[in-house]
Amino acid sequence: MSGLIEQTSLPLDVTKVKTPAYVLEEAKLKANLRVLARVQAESGAKIILALKGFAFWGAFPWVREVLHGATSSSLHELLLAKEEMQKECHIYSVAFSDEEFAEVVKVADHIVFNSFSQWQRFRSSVELAEINQSGRKIECGIRVNPEYSEIETELYNPCAANSRLGVTFEKFKPELLQGISGLHFHTHCENNSDALERGIAAFENKFGEYIPQMKWINFGGGHHITRADYDVERLICIIKKFRERWGKEVYLEPGEAVGWKTGPLVASVLDIVNNGMDIAILDTSATAHMPDCLEMPYRPDIQNSGLPGVKPFTYRLGGLTCLAGDVIGDYSFAEQLKIGDKLVFEDMIHYTIVKNSTFNGVKLPSLCIWTEKGELQVMREFGYEVYKYRNG
């Protein structure tokens, strides 16, 4: 992990950024990876990257120095894990198709099924393949639903009533566990380690009798390990006690914790209009580039801004699509905004790039890395072809 040694780095110079652009900051990513490395070293757990939250593969050379691999939710994510992470390749899908699964068994090291019916449907394919193209024996798991979580936003709650995710205790079929190496549960979304402790208790209460016959237990994702107020010591203790109690391998699969606060989305003001209030039109979009603003809803922080009315000049910030609700939010600034001003939306690397769309033909933001040496590397720019070939 020599590349992760902490060193002095130069702050991002937004004047060098051609907007719109996501800019991953090397130093901040490496700081997160140091925390995750510590958790692995002191707890004995294996941490794998959840690509659904962070798939900026230009940064994977640093990530794979620390993490044991990646987990995917689709064949395409699985192929990215194989090609760019080049370590353990895990996959969980709500449902596999026959065509997709034929490719999955060529690549996956771990396959987690969402139901026993899916396990029965594809078990023979796994047994026939036995090992994947990397020469590793394929291990299979079942996702279970402990019917417990502390997630406030229902949209992100995998254990909500009538959830389609995971097998509940009532529907669990122990007679079908032959060939199953592990159990997977996911009760988190941006939770701290105390919630994990209670989630594990719920999991053990429902499914503890089946743990002894397993090789590994996957604690799922949503662990906010790199957040400033996260209790890392408690997490380490929880994992160590679980491993001592059961003698099993433990996996965690955070995505957001890897990309947490690793860089902004930089946008520019294109126009300023007034309709009862000042409205700044940006070269980015809530619906196309930061959909959580509308889904959760979520209010991103903007550098040097405040809540409406806190600073002298308040603006509604709008995207450039024709969707009436393409509004990021209302913000105040110390000075009046001008056409050409750059706004820095903080913490925009996770769960944004992976959700982007080209709605209205809006150009996707470029992907950049700001190095520790103070250099801007443009990793990828997106043009007309991306829009065209997604639509015909």
Secondary-structure map with pairings?
Layout: E1 21-25, H1 26-43, E2 46-50, H2 60-63, E3 69-72, H3 75-85, E4 88-93, H4 98-107, E5 110-113, H5 116-129, E6 139-144, E7 180-185, H6 193-207, E8 216-218, H7 232-246, E9 249-252, H8 256-259, E10 265-274, E11 278-282, H9 286-289, H10 292-295, E12 305-306, E13 313-318, E14 327-333, E15 342-345, E16 366-370, E17 376-380, H11 384-389
Parallel strand pairs: 1-16, 2-3, 2-9, 3-4, 4-5, 5-6, 6-7, 7-8, 8-9, 11-13
Antiparallel strand pairs: 1-10, 10-11, 10-15, 12-14, 13-14, 16-17
Features of the shown structure:
9-stranded mixed sheet, alpha/beta, 392 residues, globular
Short characterization:
With 392 residues, the protein is an alpha/beta fold. 27% of the residues lie in helices and 22% in strands.
Q: Which term fits the overall shape?
A: globular
Major sheet attributes? 9 strands, mixed
Q: Cα distance, first to last residue?
A: 45 Å
Low-confidence sequence ranges? none
Binned, the helix content reads: 25-40%
Helix-strand string: EHEHEHEHEHEEHEHEHEEHHEEEEEEH
Would you report the number of β strands?
17
What's the overall average pLDDT, rounded? Answer: 96
Taking all Cα atoms into account, the compactness measure Rg is: 22 Å
Which percent range describes the beta-strand content? 15-25%
Number of helices: 11
- Given the helix and strand composition, which structural class is it? alpha/beta
What do you see in this structure?
By secondary structure, the protein is α/β, with parallel strands linked by helices. The protein has 11 helices and 17 strands. It has helices at residues 26-43, 60-63, 75-85, 98-107, 116-129, 193-207, 232-246, 256-259, 286-289, 292-295, 384-389, and strands at residues 21-25, 46-50, 69-72, 88-93, 110-113, 139-144, 180-185, 216-218, 249-252, 265-274, 278-282, 305-306, 313-318, 327-333, 342-345, 366-370, 376-380. The strands form 2 sheets. Strands 1, 10, 11, 12, 13, 14, 15, 16 and 17 form a 9-stranded mixed sheet that branches. Strand 2 (46-50), helix 2 and strand 3 form a beta-alpha-beta unit.
